[in-house]
Structure formats: structure tokens, C-alpha cells
Design brief:
Among the domains are: 40-160 and 203-301, NagB/RpiA/CoA transferase-like (Rossmann fold); 161-200, no CATH class; 417-480, no CATH class. 49% of the residues lie in helices and 10% in strands. The protein has 22 helices and 10 strands. The strands form 2 sheets. It has a 6-stranded parallel β-sheet, sandwiched between helices. It is elongated, with a radius of gyration of 27 Å.
């Protein structure tokens, strides 16, 4: 699977995507459909508000005790027979998975849907080790065949039309006839994957919720591939970020109710898998070994700051993306990160550093649509403003803590000098009057290109006379009238 776009090319990539009418039409239509599905699932505004309050409390309570809950989760998992591995970086997580595959004497792994595996570039790492990873989620399978990245965290191939998929299957899958029938395309994909579930020795999945109280791993899905991936192979590897833990089993139903209705407009998904141990004596199915990989990768950085910690409340429903006016126009690939859209703008700086993601916090209208639909009430616009501040604050700024890797990535001494000059001019009446006079009398000298302002706007044109001058003239005229 290919790497993400170079992150510093976001401006060019977003501009290119916005000028593609087919992409804009397809993404807009898909997002409108998802928005309508979600709205239909929440007809009672009061019930939705109460459920969102509950979801927020559950996630904040878990995060307030995160270190203790992670220790409890590990202890309960180990007691249940699940082996727990800790990874600080993507490289460590990839090596853990590769090591487990070697332990199982397997060169191939079959994967259920896992955005964390995308985050750590697992497929690319295994390929470099002479191993292969096969995506079993239909959307992930499609983008893997196309050598692309997912464009949406819930529906990875949402940017593809049925015609695109028909050509892809015909070209990439041997002896596959061309068809645009959606049901036939799904059956073709299932047929290509079915046997691989039973021949693979190792299966990998993500985790939607990890329960500290019971050591239970909860996964939700609609296709059944997740259940096959976690039960048919001899070894099951689950990988997740450290923030996915909740305190009690009773916390799961409200989270799932918010997740499924916000993500795909379903009251519940087709499958809810709850895994608490490997296969026990007398059981007829299930893996012989279950391994849980807990990944940090910058999450501790967000956790250390009380405001930025709210980023970790996310349950990965994708509703913020579906309602974002920026995402709906440029799609997911333009962001160049695993997590696109509003959630990507606030979590990617922690995973990758502001050096590589400095443009993302500014890629927002701050309209607040993301915050209004977030099922756990993450204040995304406030976090975007905070990250914008971090991106222009130099690391050596006095009385400002160094909280985000890459802090000051957009800092420019020239810009700071200009703002200081502006502040001085506007605080000194003499300087202000002089600048006002110069702006009106020398307005014809303003260049046509005024940086970022003129990329999408006409250049600003100062008036020939200032407001003070116009008022003075008016008063003089009125005073001369009989």
C-alpha cells in the first residue's frame, strides 16, 4: 500500500482536489447521504443531547483515570489469557506485529479494519520485511487493490464509484468479468477473500472499545470479516491507541449507540464482537492466542495538556468529517494523513508533530459544524485555535510551555515584527494619523499580489479619504447650511 501524500503539499493537494468536479460531486453526494442517515437516527433532540452528555462523561471519566485504567486493562487481559504489548512509536508497534508473525511461522496476515494499522504504516513495513498483509474489509480491500490510502475513517473507499470498482476488479482480480452490478461486485470481493481467512495463521483487527473492568475488546462491524479475522486464524492480534479504554462494561452500550448512529446512521451494527480471551478448552472456534498491542504515538503528549486532552475523547465515528464544509469539497486524500477532516486536524499534530501538519489547523472555516455533531462533544474549533497558537509560538517563548512537538512551525520573525509595528502604530495617535494619511494618499502603490489574501480574493483597495476625513467634511458642510 502506498504512503500518504507529502504533508507539506496540503495546499497544492487541496487546491487540486477542489478543482476536480467529479471528486467534489462524489464526495458531496456521499456526505449528504450520511448526514441524512444520521439525522434520521436522532429525531429527538433532547434524547440526543442527553446521550451526548453521557458519552462525554464516560470518555472524560476514563481519560481522567487513564494511567490506572491501562494498568487495570493489562492486568485483566493477562488474567484472561490475552498477552499485552506496549508500543511507544509506530516502528515499535510494527516490529511487535512482525515478531508475532515470525513466532507463528507466518509470512501473511489477514486484517480486519484498523485505522491504527494505517497510522503506523503496517502494510508497508511488512512488505519491506518480505511479508504480506491482506485487507479483508471491503473498502480497505478496494483501496489496497488500487494502491491508495483510505479517504474516510469509516468508509475507506467512499471516493470510488461503482464504475471505478468495476474496472479495478476486472483489471486486478484474475478471470473477473466486468460488471457494474453492486451486489455482484460485493460477491466478487467476498469470493476473493473467503479462502484466505482459513489459510491465514494470523489475523489482525482494531479495537473500538477496550474495557478495563473485564479485559474485554469490543469491535463493531457490518461485513462479518472482523469476526472471521479474529476467530479463524490461530493467532489474533488486536491493535489500538491507548485512549480507547473505558472503565466499566456498562459504559459500552452508550458509546456504541452514539458510534453506530453517528457513523453510518444505523441503530446498531450487524456484528458486535466482544473478545475476552483466546479459545478455551472445549470451545470449537477462536484463536489459540490473543495479543493486544497498545500504541502511544503522541497520545501521551495530548494527554499531558488538560485542554488538548479533549482530543482523545474521540470514538472515531467520522461524523465531523461528514458535516465539514472543507472535507466535503476536497475529500480525504488531500490531507495526506491517516485521519482526515476535523478530527485529523486536531489529532495529527500530536501523532506527527506540527512541523509536518502546520497547515491542517488552519484548514477550517471554524463554522462549528463538527462540534455540533460530535457525539462526545469535543470542542474542535477551540482545539484548532489552540493548535494555531502553538504553531506560531516559538519554542523559546517565555512563560509558554512546550506542549506540542513542532511548536512554532509557522513562526516567522517578519510576521512578529509586523504585528509589533501594527500594535505600536495603533497605540500612538500621531503614528496612527500618519499611517492613515499614507494609506489613503499612496493607495495606488499597493501591489496586486498581497500574499495569501489575494489567492482567492481581489486585492484590498483603501478609500481615497479616511472615515475621519469624510465625517469632518460632512460636519463642515452641515455647519455652512442656513
Amino acid at each position: 500500500m502506498s504512503h500518504s501524500h507529502p504533508l507539506h503539499d496540503f495546499r497544492a493537494a487541496s487546491s487540486h482536489a477542489a478543482q476536480d468536479p467529479t471528486q467534489r460531486h462524489n464526495t458531496r453526494a456521499a456526505m449528504d447521504f450520511l448526514m441524512q442517515r444520521r439525522a434520521a437516527q436522532f429525531p429527538d433532540a433532547d434524547e440526543l443531547s442527553r446521550l451526548r452528555d453521557l458519552g462525554q462523561r464516560i470518555r472524560q471519566r476514563a481519560l481522567s483515570r487513564l494511567p490506572l485504567l491501562l494498568e487495570q486493562l493489562e492486568a485483566r487481559c493477562v488474567a484472561n489469557g490475552i498477552q499485552v504489548h506496549w508500543a511507544d512509536t509506530p516502528a515499535e508497534a510494527c516490529e511487535i506485529v512482525a515478531g508475532l508473525m515470525r513466532q507463528a511461522n507466518s509470512q501473511e496476515i489477514i486484517k480486519g479494519k484498523s485505522m491504527v494499522s494505517e497510522e503506523i504504516e503496517l502494510n508497508h513495513f511488512l512488505e519491506a520485511q518480505g511479508m504480506t498483509a491482506l485487507e479483508s474489509d471491503m473498502g480497505e480491500f478496494i483501496v489496497q487493490l488500487a494502491h491508495e490510502k483510505p479517504s474516510h475513517i469509516i468508509m475507506p473507499a467512499i471516493h470510488k464509484t461503482k464504475v471505478d470498482i468495476a474496472h479495478l476488479f476486472h483489471d486486478e482480480l484474475p478471470r473477473t468479468p466486468y460488471t457494474e452490478d453492486v451486489d455482484e461486485l460485493i460477491q466478487i470481493g467476498r469470493h476473493a477473500l473467503r479462502q484466505r481467512f482459513f489459510t491465514a495463521k494470523v489475523g489482525l483487527s482494531g479495537v473500538n472499545v477496550a474495557v478495563a473492568e473485564t479485559g474485554t475488546l469490543v469491535l463493531v462491524e457490518n461485513e462479518g470479516n472482523g469476526r472471521l479475522t479474529t476467530s479463524a486464524p490461530e493467532m489474533h492480534i488486536a491493535i489500538t491507541g491507548i485512549e480507547k479504554v473505558v472503565e466499566k462494561l456498562e459504559d459500552v452500550p452508550p458509546i456504541l449507540s452514539l458510534l453506530t448512529r453517528s457513523a453510518t446512521g444505523q441503530p446498531i451494527t450487524t456484528y458486535v464482537n466482544m473478545i475476552s480471551s483466546p479459545r478455551k478448552a472445549g470451545e470449537k472456534d477462536g484463536p489459540q492466542q490473543v495479543h493486544l498491542v497498545l500504541l502511544d504515538n503522541g497520545r501521551s503528549q495530548a494527554y499531558a495538556d488538560l485542554q488538548l486532552r479533549e482530543t482523545l475523547q474521540c470514538i472515531r465515528c467520522g461524523a465531523c468529517m461528514n458535516h465539514c464544509p472543507v472535507y466535503t469539497r476536497i475529500g480525504g486524500h488531500a490531507y495526506g494523513t491517516t485521519y482526515p477532516g476535523p478530527i485529523g486536524k486536531i489529532i495529527s499534530p500530536h501523532l506527527l508533530g506540527l512541523d509536518d501538519t502546520k497547515d491542517l489547523p488552519s484548514a477550517s472555516t471554524l463554522c462549528g459544524a463538527c462540534s455540533e455533531v460530535c457525539p462526545v462533544r469535543i470542542p474542535i474549533p477551540e482545539l484548532l485555535l489552540r493548535l494555531r497558537q502553538e504553531s506560531v509560538t516559538p519554542e523559546n517563548e517565555p512563560n509558554h510551555p512546550h506542549t506540542v512537538r513542532g511548536q512554532g512551525a509557522k513562526y516567522r520573525a517578519t510576521e512578529k515584527w509586523l504585528w509589533r509595528s501594527w500594535a505600536r502604530i495603533y497605540s500612538q495617535p500621531v503614528l496612527y494619523r500618519a499611517s492613515r494619511f499614507a494609506a489613503t494618499r499612496l493607495r495606488g502603490l499597493l501591489p496586486h499580489d498581497v500574499g495569501a489574501w489575494t489567492i482567492a480574493r481581489a486585492k484590498p483597495q483603501p478609500a481615497a479619504k479616511s472615515l475621519h476625513e469624510l465625517v469632518a467634511e460632512y460636519q463642515a458642510t452641515q455647519g455652512n447650511q442656513p
